[in-house]
Amino acid sequence: MAIIMISRGTLSGGKALAERVADRLGYPCLSRGETVRETIEKYGISEKELTAAMNEPPPFWQQVHGRRISYIKEFSAVLMEHIKGENLVYHGHVGHLMLGPVSHVLRVRVIADMEFRIKGAMARKNLSREEAIAFIQKIDKQRDKWTRFLYGVEWKDASLYDVLFNLEHLSIDVAGDAIVHMAGMDAFKPTPQSQKAFADLILSSRVWSALAIDGHVMVSDISVSADAGKVTISGGASSAKAINAITAVAQRVEGVKEVKTDVGVGSDWYW
To answer: Global pTM?
Structure first.
């Protein structure tokens, strides 16, 4: 079993590589775009709002109590449901960072020289050279800001990945063979510790998703963690009644054995 997360720059060739690896392994292949569409359908949010949330951090005044933070968590919850089967190839921007402490994940970054990306943008987007450069630079800047805001890291930092491939210098077949080989190595096989970390991550994501769908409380600042079926929810609520609602929703989620709420009574917690 292996989870393969391929982080790719715009027009770097990562999509084709992900599809080749998935085909070789017989795994499902999931893209960022597919996950966005499923998130829109599941949570009933607009494509424009989710796209904005996925491309740029929210303005300063929205960074504490902002729906855009919830959109990211909703996207993550959808991604977690796909990953729960563990045999998956995902390609998109920094999906691997959403898996936190889970160690049985092969984290791949695909890069390409700027000239390679410019030519790709000109051909696929029908842009002039100047337009292609501006397009790539804009997206790279947005991703830099987004990753720093959510995770406090630089997405181009090589230490965040297990392996990097430059598809200007390697063929899709060669890079794909290397990934397939690495996915079978002991270093990327599940251990009892990594499986527990993964199960805790999935459960906390499901509880948060249930709270978001329930709609009785503002979930922007609610934090959920899990430890072997014991769920801790922290944040704020508008009343003691709202806290009871949070607990009741969490208790109905499959796999939850115990719920602890560290939720204070404040304002602005009902929709």
So the answer is: 0.82
